Amino acid sequence: MSGAVLILGATSAIARGTAAALARRGHRLYLAGRDVESLRRDAADLAIRYGVQVNFGLFSADAHDTHAAFLQRVSEEMGELEGVVLAFGYLGSQQKAAGDFEETLTIINRNFVDAVSILNLCADHLEQRGRGFIAGIASVAGDRGRQSNYTYGAAKGALALYLQGLRNRLFPAGVRVLTVKPGFVDTAMTFGMPGLFLVATPAYVGERIVAAVERGRDVIYVPWFWRWIMLIITSIPERLFKRLKL
Amino acid sequence: MNTLNKEIAGWGRYPVQRCELVRPERHADLLSEAPSLLARGQGRSYGDAALNENRRVVLTERVNRFLAFDRDQGVIRAEAGVTLAELLTLTVPRGWFPLVTPGTKHVSLGGCVAADVHGKNHHHDGAFSRSVRELELITADGRRLCCSARENGEAFRATVGGMGLTGIIGEVELQLQPIESVYIRARHQGAANLEQVFALLQDTDNDARYSVAWLDLMSRGAGLGRGVVMNGDHAARDELSGGRRLTPLRLAPAKVRNIPFDMPGWLLNGLSIRAFNAQYFRREGGRSGSFLVDYDTFFYPLDTLDNWNRLYGKRGFVQYQCVVPTATALEAMQQLLQRLADSVHPAFLGVLKRMGAAGEGYLSFPMEGYTLAMDLPMKGVATLALLDAFDAIVLQHGGRVYLAKDARLAADSFRAMYPQLEAWRRVRRELDPQGVFGSSLSRRLGMGEEE
To answer: How far apart are CA B82 and CA B62, in angstroms?
Structure first.
């Protein structure tokens, strides 16, 4: 497997780790995002380190009517796609979202609506081709609503459900869909946050994501022990959970 | 951008200071709004050069992208957070090696520029800045200045060796040197005292591209300054045999061990160091003829021991590195070693090197002469008093102390050691009129006049 892979939201740290893991295996890449200057730098770096072709271009997640043309351009430049990695997202601030509906809407749109818009098109592309993969970055925050980030959690949880349905739909076509649920990853988002433990590097997370794609996994937690942490958290009875400060 | 208040230190782990850390992921975010800023790469300077107490420190480790690599000409351009280790992984298999490398590869390119580091070939090839074709300097007002010996020459000369005080170094473009193999043809010669060490380092018949002397700092009396002179040259492909000749540019990664926690402070004492040195002197000084070693072993012997600074325990250590002009170098080094011997202060690693002509940087450390580096466990007042005595000897001989190693030099000694300070200040005033860039080192030494 060494076909072209489209990375949406390619300048995020997890995307960069995933891109490196793919490039190391010889995949050609298309890096898509808002910040074209950063994409140019990332593309140069990957091409120099791993000797693969890396293209890049502007992708506006919230401009849904541009998505079809965008995907058309990508497939003209790269040929048929082998896979798509969806890595954009927006943590936002729950506190701000409580009093500011704009913030709430941005969190929901970026993490769910925008993702659905582009993934619908990618799903059609891969389904026609009859193989390939989609890897979507959801979150452990989507496994249970908590007061500290329930808007973000709701949007990521919705994305996880959407990916689950997509997996079901695309299975007969031979297209695999991977849901990734990262725990604490050492990124700009978590830098300096108090109370973090066992933080994984973006390079490690990227490597685990690509390994999971290769093994045809459905849902992974990275690092792996987050599966068990979330199992405990989701098994706390709601009567009790609602009283906790999490 | 998220911030993290944390106690950090340089490689010597003295001093430890609380700083406000930020860690940009992108080149565009290197500069941030703060009253005082300092870029920090891998934190391999020893003292307080990469500290900015109670102020902002910008970690550049994530801004580490390669931007261009010309495999025919050996020119590479990268964001300044790229380390030499990353660079070597990329360029060595294609037959290119840095022109100048310090004794560890876990340093950022930005740090190499800011300290204008040198290697074992300074007497032939000069300091790191000699291999810098161009650098990008991000100034306090957000300009991105392209600097080289020709373009914005003043900013270039103030930035190489400028300890990060002219702005943030965003990108670096380097000229590499071609190599035929990953191997170095090395030769060791034992020397019974300091005079003999000097004689071997001076001997032009014996001249090698790379040259360094390890000194037994615990040896006394007639054996004062005894050591092993180690020479080396890049080995050509036809000097290799067997499998090495078939794949001369391939090198398996070195096995790295880790010191997982602080060793007790008494571990490196006079007795244990003496025993180690005596054994090392016999083994390394006794090797006859020339032999092949890979570049990792030759240039970066300590990189195979992760966190080796923990050997010195919680109090850390200081490295004292000075350079003294050729004319009275032997005399000066003898005085330094005698002063150390009289003090009965333990000292581990001692390294003596020849240096060639000074480069262009206003505050660059190298000058024509000899440079001595000594690692001393930090023992508080006794250590600091000894190093002040060293300063007096170095000043008397017209030498200077290396800022990248320093944790305790006095401001007036610094001014006397760096005669181009005024020229540097003039350029810095233009680049950073508000004095946004600062460090614990710059304030301690009063490098900016306002301080």
So the answer is: 8
* Fold of domain B183-409: Alpha-Beta Plaits (3.30.70)
CATH of domain B66-180: 3.30.465.10
Task: Give the DSSP H or E segment for B21.
Answer: strand B16-22
Instruction: Give the tokens for residue B46.
Output: 């020893």
Residue A33 touches partner B, C-beta closer than 8 Å: no
Which of A38, A49, A190 lies nearest to residue B26, judging by beta carbons? A38
Query: Which residues of chain A neighbour B74 with C-beta distances below 8 Å?
Result: none
Residue of B62, B70, B83, B89 to mutate, testing the A interface (most A Cβ within 10 Å of its Cβ): B62
B4 part of contact set with chain A, CB < 8 Å:
yes
Domains identified in chain A, total number: 1
Q: How many residues are given for chain B?
A: 451
The amino acid present at A101, given as its one-letter code, is F
Residue B134: name the closest of B117, B159, B164, B111 by CA. B159
CATH at A95:
3.40.50.720
Cβ B149 vs Cβ B195: under 8 Å: no
Measured between alpha carbons, how far is residue A228 from residues A205, A219, A220, A223 in Å? Answer: 17, 13, 12, 10
Report how far residue A132's alpha carbon sits from residue A117's, in angstroms, rounded to the nearest whole number: 19
Q: Does A37 touch chain B (CB under 8 A)?
A: yes
Q: Which two tokens stand for residue A118?
A: 């582009």
Q: In a structure prediction context, what are the per-residue pLDDT tens digits for chain A, which is 246 residues long? A: 579 999 999 999 999 999 999 999 999 999 999 999 999 999 999 999 999 999 999 999 999 999 999 999 999 999 999 999 999 999 998 989 889 999 999 999 999 999 999 999 999 999 999 999 999 999 999 999 999 899 999 999 999 999 999 999 999 999 999 999 999 899 988 898 887 777 899 999 999 999 999 999 999 999 999 999 999 999 999 999 999 887
A246 located within any domain: no
**Cα separation of B109 and B171, whole Å?**
8
Q: What per-residue string of b and e applies to A221-238 under the rule 16 or more CB within 10 Å gives b?
A: bbbeebbeebeebeeeee
Contacts of A191 in chain B (CB under 8 A): 2, 4, 22-23
User: Does A56 contact B at CB distance below 8 Å?
Assistant: no
Yes or no, beta carbons of B25 and A193 under 8 Å apart:
no
What residues contact residue B159 under an 8 Å CB cut-off, 6+ apart?
B113, B114, B135, B137, B147, B166, B167, B169, B361
Question: Domain limits of chain B?
Answer: 66-180, 183-409
Is residue B276 less than 8 Å (CB to CB) from chain A?
A: no
Compare CB distances from A192 to B2, B26, B90 and report the shortest one's residue.
B2
Inter-chain contacts counted by CB atoms under 8 A, chains A and B: 48
Q: Is B58 helix (H, G, I), strand (E, B) or coil?
A: strand
Domain coverage including residue A176: 4-241
Nearest CA in chain A to B3: A192
For B24, name the nearest residue in chain A, comparing CA atoms only: A188
Q: At what angle do helices B329-343 and B194-202 cross, to 10 degrees?
A: 150
